[in-house]
Specification:
This protein is an alpha/beta fold. Helices cover about 35% and strands about 15% of the residues. It folds into 2 domains: about 10-145, 2-enoyl-CoA Hydratase, Chain A, domain 1, CATH 3.90.226; about 175-330 and about 375-405, 2-enoyl-CoA Hydratase, Chain A, domain 1, CATH 3.90.226.10.
C-alpha cells in the first residue's frame, strides 16, 4: 500500500484506514509480506458526525500487530509520517527512510534541527534499519532485503546461487586480528572474508555500532549474522546494542533463519551510568530471547568471551547447536586484568613496595590467561564454558557451511505454555 501526498497531503481518513486494516488482515490470511510506502501528513482530522476516524486506525494497528511473526512487514518513509500513524513503521520488522525527505515524528516540539529525520532515527533513536538518498534507492533496498526473506513463517528463505566455494579457506584471516589483545580491529574485515562473495546486508549500520548485524549467505543459504565489533567500545553489550540484538534474534527465529554469532566481547559495561540505563534488564531480555530460540544457532568465538555477554552471545551453557573457538579464545568471568587485581591484591601491594610490581603483575596475568584459554578450558565440556572444537581460523567458513548442512532439518520444541513473559 502507499499514501499519496498529492491527494489531501496523503492524510489517513476513516475509509482509508479501514482499507489498511483489511489489507493487514488479508496479508496474514494469504501469507504474503506487507509493504507500506508512506508519504502522509498523518490522521485526517474530521469531526463530521462526531467521528474522527480513530476507530479504523485502531483496527489497523491491531491487525498489523497480530500478523507479527506471520509475514514480513516493511515500511518505507519517503515523506512525512507523523502523529499516531508514526507507530506503524516502528511496528514493522524493517524501516527504510529517505535521508532527504523522510520524516518520522510522533508529535510535540522539535528542539533540534536533525530530530525526526532519517539520520536521527538511524543514529540516535535506533528505529531506522536502512537509509537511502533517493526514493529509487529506498525501493531498490527493499527489493534487496526481500531476497533474504521468506514469504511467511512457514517457508524457508530463498536460496540464491552465489557461485562461491563452500570449502574456501581464507588464509589472511589470521592476519586480521592483532596479536596483542589490547589492540582492536574492525569485525567487518572478518565478516566479509567468511560470507558468500563478501556480501553482507547490514542493518542499523550507524546505531550501536559496537554490535554488527545483518543478512548474508553461506553456500547460498540465508543466515542472520551477529558480531561484536571490538573497534567500538570493545564490543560491549550495553542497552542500545542489546535492543538491536534482541529484535533481530526474534525476527530470525520467527522466520526460520539460522543465526550465526561471532564473539569478541569484554562483557556488559559496569558502573552507575549503565545501571541507570537499565543494563541488567536489557541483558535479561537477551537471555530470555536466546533461551527461546528454536532456529539453528552457531557460535564462533574469536578472542574474548567475558562475563554475562559471553552467555547471551551463545556460549555452550545456552546450548547453541555448534560452538567453535579460535585458538585465541579466552573464557573468563571478567577481563583477566580485573581478576588479577581482585584475587592477588595483597601480593601486588607487596610487590609494589618491593619495586617488583610489573614483574609480579605480568607473571600472575600470564597464569590466569593460560587458565582462561580455550586450549585449557576446552578439555572440560561439562565443567566450564567451552567449545565443540578449537579450529584453525582459516577453516571457519567451511566449518559454518558444514554445520548448516547438519542443521538443515533441525526440529526443536519449547516447553508447552500459553506464552513467555519477556523482562521489561
Amino acid at each position: 500500500y502507499a499514501t499519496d501526498f498529492t491527494v489531501m497531503s496523503g492524510s489517513l481518513g476513516d475509509q482509508g484506514v479501514w482499507k489498511l486494516a483489511d489489507l493487514a488482515k488479508m496479508a496474514g490470511q494469504r501469507l504474503q509480506p506487507i509493504i507500506g510506502i508512506i508519504d502522509s501528513a498523518g490522521e485526517r482530522l474530521s469531526f463530521k458526525g462526531g467521528d474522527i476516524g480513530f476507530n479504523g486506525l485502531g483496527q489497523f494497528l491491531r491487525n498489523y500487530s497480530l500478523i507479527s511473526g506471520i509475514v514480513p512487514r516493511i515500511s518505507l518513509i519517503l515523506g512525512p509520517c507523523t502523529g499516531v500513524s508514526a507507530v506503524v513503521p516502528v511496528l514493522s520488522d524493517f524501516l527504510i527512510m529517505n535521508r532527504r525527505t523522510g520524516f518520522l515524528w510522533l508529535g510535540g516540539e522539535k528542539k533540534t534541527p536533525e530530530a525526526g529525520w532519517a539520520d536521527f532515527h538511524m543514529e540516535k533513536s535506533g528505529q531506522c534499519d536502512l537509509v537511502a538518498d533517493t526514493d529509487e534507492e529506498a525501493i531498490a533496498l527493499t527489493k534487496k532485503l526481500l531476497t533474504y526473506l521468506p514469504q511467511n513463517c512457514w517457508e524457508k528463505p530463498p536460496v540464491v546461487e552465489m557461485g562461491d566455494d563452500p570449502e574456501r579457506r581464507e588464509k589472511d584471516l589470521v592476519d586480521v586480528m592483532p596479536d596483542d589483545p589490547r589492540f582492536t580491529y574492525d569485525i567487518h574485515e572478518i565478516i566479509t572474508r567468511l560470507v558468500d562473495k563478501g556480501e553482507f546486508f547490514e542493518l542499523k549500520e550507524n546505531f550501536a555500532n559496537h554490535l554488527i548485524l545483518g543478512f548474508c549467505r553461506f553456500n547460498n543459504q540465508v543466515c542472520g549474522l551477529v558480531a561484536n565489533n571490538p573497534e567500538e567500545l570493545s564490543g560491549i553489550l550495553e542497552p542500545d546494542s542489546s535492543d538491536k540484538y534482541d529484535r533481530f534474534m526474534t525476527f530470525l527465529d520467527a522466520f526460520n533463519i539460522p543465526q550465526i554469532n561471532i564473539v569478541d566481547t569484554t562483557a556488559f559495561p559496569p558502573g552507575d551510568k549503565w545501571e541507570k540505563l537499565g543494563v541488567i534488564r536489557h541483558g535479561a531480555k537477551l537471555l530470555h530471547t536466546y533461551a527461546h530460540l528454536t532456529s539453528p544457532k552457531i557460535t564462533i568465538v574469536l578472542r574474548r568471551a567475558y562475563g554475562g555477554a559471553n552467555i547471551v552471545m551463545g556460549c555452550s551453557a545456552m546450548f547453541p547447536d555448534f560452538v567453535y573457538g579460535w585458538p585465541t579464545t579466552e573464557f573468563a568471568p571478567t577481563g583477566p586484568e580485573t581478576v588479577v587485581h581482585a584475587i592477588f591484591h595483597k601480593e601486588l601491594a607487596k610487590a609494589k613496595e618491593e619495586g617488583r610490581y610489573d614483574q609480579v603483575y605480568n607473571f600472575l596475568l600470564g597464569i590466569l590467561k593460560e587458565q582462561f584459554s580455550v586450549l585449557n578450558m576446552g578439555k572440560f565440556w561439562n565443567t566450564y564454558y567451552t567449545v565443540h572444537e578449537v579450529i584453525d581460523p582459516r577453516d571457519t567458513r567451511p566449518k559454518i557451511v558444514k554445520a548448516l548442512q547438519a542443521l538443515a532439518n533441525k526440529q526443536e520444541e519449547l516447553p508447552e505454555k500459553k506464552r513467555s513473559i519477556k523482562p521489561a
